[in-house]
Write a structure and sequence with these properties.
homotrimer, 464 residues, alpha/beta, uronate isomerase, domain 2, chain A, 2 domains, four-stranded parallel beta sheet, 21 helices, 9 strands, 50% helix
Chain lengths: 464, 464, 464
């Protein structure tokens, strides 16, 4: 018996499915390049066993517990936001009992892949199989083949990027480079904590940045210098990209005096919402300017209303599954930045969205014109079979394939990385197979594209 | 000869169609639960024959006459907004002559179902068959099997909710409960007339509400009490849900003094558009608060620009086919209400939309997190084969199936109820069949889901 | 060997494909009616050879060079915005080398059709075949069968509309009418240059309009008279339609004094952005009023942010591939105009969009109600296989087929016209075939609709 079917996610039409199968056979074993995610360098630096199934697969995965929470399971019962000891087996049983909630979701696909491919489980998870699952997974996690570095190798990872604050010491990245291990774990420069005035501890963060870099970050010029130095430090440890999570896609082009004044205002406690938004907008432009200087690829992930549920935020803190997408205007928002740098051949600026209505209306037309722009893959809520397929259908005709950048798993659930890439590869093959079956693309081109979408575009876009 | 094909709405791919057929066979005969619609309790209380074909099938159905009007048929020729006697046969002939306009629309599917399944007609409606249709339908409508209660039973209705103003005496609902008839006709509390300051006669309505309930509705506290009492009156007659049709999804959380003052302002003739919108927003929050107290499920249907065509409104009044959807922001709009009650386990809040761009961007992420939220089915303009399929494709991956609530027919066209539920069941089977054929769902799960989507989720969500 | 497959764009499912094939066979040879495009009357008036392949197929086609530019090819290397002599063969080689960029785009489909059907080329374009292509095409373009009038006839064009400024002398249209050639080349009245205050040379244009018409265009009444006369001049040369490219869908209904005052303000140099927008809005309403008087069909193409890339605009001018769509609100925007003229039976108002989220939310509901409204086909960026299919899926269920108006090629690439219509016909057949295969439409109806969508609806809507 098996949970996974070898033809999963391929179209039902026999001819199209046959093409998809042939395409997939040529890419299923290619290395995984993961240029954007939220795993931790410490795991690989320390190379210690992962904890038990619940702590590995449920607690860090907001896809999992947001669904459980939405159906009446309490955060407390899941151990989220708890300080004391948790009962992992009990949490696992709750999860198993509610596994039907994930029918039709990508989480189900990813977890089934992990269960079967990594842990050899071949019966569906349910209340009845909960303990068996827990025992098998718990036992395997203690084996050397399940240590982080062994899994990295088993997953055929070629590069794995983390996401890091400029305030991070990057000690684990440093340790990894010095360790002699051949794995490639790269930091990503994510400066939200020091460029977003609404970030917790913004002023203290900037002060700490000053101490770290020896710059006077109470001044605009010192602050910019500190950021430049910080980016250099990241680069020296292999970083090739920055990442920016903003509420909107707004950018600005203030002159130096205005920017200085605005910086002083947001550093004081007297800024209003409009000024804080303008500061974030200006900082995207500053980051682009620095990217042109230092060659770091720039990523923008806008449009998430963070911590929408105040009660859950108060109880459980950030990243508790209550970030909700909003409508985004890229066309007016990005114009100030693009007016300055949109035609720079050395600049790569990757745009993501949570608002699908922008794929055909804004993002594909922008990326199909500006030399600096590339379309990031469908992200968060959209990194699903239907979401990925809609992305291809909505973006390809205007932006083409070559203004896209391969797949991002964007996850802190390390074990789900192969599952996520497998889903993406299958959907790409399904899409290409349809184009071939409908004679919109020649078969030899589809084989070439399958390689491009899996490894070539991501390597090139992220300069790996 | 027949109009309907047994495989209608199933995917063409033979394997997928086979799965859809097998799924459908297990649910096609299940009872119909209709928790949201616009039929009239009086029909069942009086149990008199329906009038002629035109008065039954054309005049009350804005889906039908809006299409005819859009193609140059005058409202006058259709008898819409007329006070004198109408020539039903003439209207029917006009309709029949234009039946090709409905090609590709759900109206066509619903009507063909009624024609064949209820009236035994087996040739397509056209100018040539107009009189035959009229005669057959007119004659059948006089038969006892076509009386409202007989049809209710023939349709296997398990429950049928109407939509009622707080000012309604509910006399027919009362009569039905006292009649001994086993049919289950339930009122729904729809307070637009007394919570929306732009509603015709708003002040008089509130005054009438005061008289009905013995409360001083010139005061905020008395007004709230009156609403509470009115809800209790509905509950005593079987009501399990409220329904709110607002231009936006805005909610508010004013303190008591602000709310009192705002109420006084909207009751005076001096409120401006912003204050009227704020009042509606506050009233959604008050309704939620009352729902937590009295257990009524809350439904929100926002985003319709009512009576967009001023000329038609002046001639024919409300509900004349000229309500047009607008873009909606749920994420910011609902936050005040969700901050207060979003995590209440006893609260059920069902959200509908006319703006499909919100399914994947806002509604599925919200419903996939907040315990109180459920997604209403695709509504009005979207209660169509493509609309329903897009809803499943756009919402399921993030919200799952279990944050949805089955199907609403939302119609005043009583005879179309089985047709509408049949379309919904077929599309659900088509969607599930694709998931099975693509190995994204196991077949046993699909059979279970078919039952859930048809009867279990609606019973649970609406507390029936 | 061949580039094109006879079943291209038909669904892969064998039964559905069979239906699509049968439908297509009945319409593939029907005449082409092209009521909206950007070819030049001069080509047909002079009937001279087209220039070389690069000047014919690359330089005038922003779909082609925007993609090349987005991938790092410079405008200079493509000869765009250059004043001196260009090296056409060199440009062609650059294009050929980058032909893979167009995989999955409609441009690829159109070009392959031209290469094979017009020039008899049967190997895919690439760096290797670049010179062969150049030589074959260049040679053919010198043959009499490739002169504009010969191609017009070979394409089975029944009517071809150009787009013209009121300031245009229309001398070539006049010459064509006097030439005795049986081809039907019609002007379209496109008044952006004299109704949009942000248009380059707006004041001078209006002054020139006054000279042309003998009206005092410094006054509101004279300005309106001048526009009326200009429309009459177009009508006298066969024009049946006007076309309006506005940033938004806003309309206005100012009284005469307000309009006079606003006109004076925008004619002065003192207007602000809001006043300029209001003036455009008012002018749409004035154009509708004139359409009711003179019978010209009105087309609105809103929602393009023109010349988004300032650098490219400075270097290469307008229409250089940097127009980007924006979100549009039709529901509030059109209300003032529809309040006045929405129910006029003699008025035809065709709406286009670049914002697909409006198809099901706004456009289909509006067109499915207002007698004057019709839905234009998917336009620019959306005139692609997926875009056209989504249009049918999103609009048909609410607006029906009969509120649509056939296909527009909207191109200045004359040789691509048959290719574009062929793609549209195939997609329509694919859509109809699916409806038939899923028993949502009878096969005889699909055959009738195929004719309607190809020739009948466009003839009727554009009064041709």
């Amino acid at each position: 018996m098996a949970i996974l079917h070898p033809d999963r996610l391929f179209p039902a039409d026999p001819e199209t499915r046959g093409i998809a199968r042939r395409l997939y056979a040529t890419i299923s074993d290619l290395p995984i390049i993961s240029p954007h995610g939220h795993t931790e360098a410490a795991w690989f630096a320390k190379n210690e066993s992962f904890p038990d199934p619940a702590q590995l697969l449920i607690l860090p995965d907001h896809y999992v517990y947001r669904m459980l929470y939405s159906q009446g399971v309490s955060m407390r019962d899941l151990g989220i936001g708890q300080t004391g000891k948790i009962d992992s087996r009990k949490i696992w049983r709750i999860f198993a009992k509610h596994y039907h909630l994930f029918r039709g979701t990508p989480t189900r696909l990813w977890l089934d892949y992990e269960f079967e491919m990594l842990f050899g489980l071949d019966q569906r998870l349910s209340a009845a199989t909960a303990d068996h699952y827990f025992d098998v997974i718990a036992e395997k996690l203690q084996q050397p083949e399940f240590l982080p570095r062994a899994l990295y190798e088993r997953f055929r990872l070629e590069a794995l990027s983390t996401t890091d604050s400029p305030l991070d010491s990057l000690e684990h990245h440093r340790a990894l480079r010095e360790s002699g291990w051949k794995g490639c774990i790269l930091p990503t420069f994510r400066p939200d904590s020091v460029v977003d005035p609404t970030f917790h501890g913004f002023r203290e963060n900037i002060s700490q940045l000053g101490e770290q870099t020896g710059e006077d970050t109470t001044k605009w010029s010192g602050y910019l210098n500190a950021l430049r130095k910080s980016r250099e430090r990241f680069k020296s440890l292999g970083c090739t990209a920055t990442d920016h999570g903003h509420p909107t896609a707004n950018t600005a082009n203030l002159d130096k005096q205005e920017a200085e004044k605005l910086f002083a205002t947001v550093l004081s406690c007297k800024s209003n919402a409009e000024q804080r938004e303008l500061f974030r907008a200006q900082m995207l432009t500053e980051m682009a300017r620095m990217s042109i200087d230092d060659g770091l690829v720039m990523q923008l992930h806008p449009g998430s209303f963070r911590n929408h549920n105040q009660t859950i935020f108060d109880q459980c803190g950030r990243d508790a599954g209550a970030d909700i997408p909003t409508a985004i205007d890229y066309v007016h928002g990005l114009k100030p930045l693009l007016d300055l740098f949109g035609n720079e051949p050395s600049f790569t600026f990757i745009l993501f969205t949570l608002d699908e209505s922008t794929f055909s209306r804004e993002l594909a037309p922008l990326a199909g014109h500006y030399p600096c722009l590339r379309l990031g893959p469908p992200w968060w809520f959209l990194d699903s079979p239907e979401g990925m397929m809609r992305f291809r259908e909505l973006a390809t005709e205007t932006a083409g394939f070559y203004n896209t950048v391969g797949f991002n798993d964007d996850t802190r659930a390390f074990l789900s990385i192969p599952a996520r890439h497998d889903v993406a590869r299958r959907i790409d093959c399904a899409y290409l197979a349809r184009l071939v079956a409908e004679h919109r693309l020649d078969e030899d081109e589809a084989f070439e594209l399958a390689q491009d979408l899996t490894i070539n575009l991501v390597r090139k876009a992220y300069r790996l």
